Amino acid sequence: MLSFLKRIHPESIPWPGSVFYNALSSTVIFQRHYEMAADDILSYCKQGSLLDVGTGPARLLLKLHQKVPQMKLVGIDSSPAMVVKAKENTAGVESIEIKEGNADKIPFDDNCFDIVVSTVSMHHWKHPVAGLNEVYRVLKTGGFALVYDLVSDTPQSILADCRREFGKFKTTLFWLHSFEEPFYSQKSFQALIQSTLFGNCQTKFLGLMYCLILKKG
Fold it and tell me: Which of 5, 15, 139, 200 has the fewest beta carbons closer than 10 A?
């Protein structure tokens, strides 16, 4: 089922989906998770340069800019329509750069980012191993890559916490959403990493998001 969904599911969000997702990303549940992700990212790196792969409307970059305005923040997305939205949202913020680009063909040189992140994007990637190897290529030695995504087997305890914080309706929508999107399971995520240049990873949950913690040795 996962392989079938990946074949038919678009890698990028075209217009008018970009307009809908831009609005959705401003809701409380999304903003709360961007906030958590930003704080978690800064516990690994607070200076230098950061690349956000599949940045969407760049909400995470805006959260990071609020917390560390001196950090160079770059976002890429494979959707031209989403890039337009991201540029609109970050207009006037000189430390944020938005470019069009695919995960498996990142338009930057080797070893140029102190940290690379991705939030709720990797399940869209058509070539995830190639994408993660590209992340490895552009990441500086000793740097971290943090991949946050939803999984198809979210523990009931995590869902219960979500229901308490955001209500049953929004949590149920998330549960239904997991049948339509080609989300990985925790085990399939970890197996995928073993086929990449990273070789292995640590994992944890951050709210509803499953986090892969990868380090370039």
Answer: 200
